[in-house]
Description:
By secondary structure, the protein is an alpha/beta fold. The chain has 6 helices and 13 strands.
Amino acid sequence: MRIYVTGATGFLGSWVVAKALAEGFDVIAPRRSDHASLCIPSSLQPLWINKDLEGLSSSDLQGVDAVIHMASAGVSPKKATPRELAHVNVELTLHLASQACEAGVRSFVVAGTCYEYGLSSNHYEFIPVDACLRPVNVYGASKAAAFHMLYSLALRDALPLVYCRIFTAFGEGQSILNFWPSLRAAALTGRDFEMSSGMQIRDFLPVERVAEQLLSACNRVDASNQPKVINIGSGVPKTLKQFAEEQWQSFNAPGKLIFGAKPSRPDDLPRIVADMTGPSNG
């Protein structure tokens, strides 16, 4: 299978590319400079194309079986203005979708986020894919806006859309400013680690499993071309405190976890856990 992967130099994208290459996929990946590369070690490399999404045309996707779109603005811990979010996450995503449709790709896989659900997570123990999207930050809002437009485009033009809402991924290659890498760095250097109370309930998933599910999404199980929406999570609720304690122990950290030393973010949701039992996750 030949796949075209955007966002290949990012955390999730690097894992998807590395796993795809290891499994024998032909992988094409656009990048903005000759110096950009995967953020994790890999003996194999994709066919790099020095081109940004704005310059992409359907001819670039000829012979491609599936597109996995992970390029996105505003992914934590990076910041982006509302204008940047609208341009990259909505406009360029729709541009890529239209070119993929014109090129006749068999599967168009998009990496969304669980934070599109936002306040709806307060009404579900396990949130299903058909829950109302009520994001509480502009990043989640931009992804939700892109989803609604992609879904309509898929219905109109028979775009073979698989939209994947990813829950709390963690692992090698993640920015040191994110929770798991900063916790690991403290553990391995013998420092104490200050964090919030840790009472937030999340759905944690190793990045390797996220990559597996994104690649699996390239193989649609139906020929209807009806848009499909899936959650990518574990379906296992766990407090941030529990997660921190488990990871801290796995690193044999000599320091201490200091709970309540930092405030929770104003837009922090109390609970968001994937429903992995619904038909769209089959």
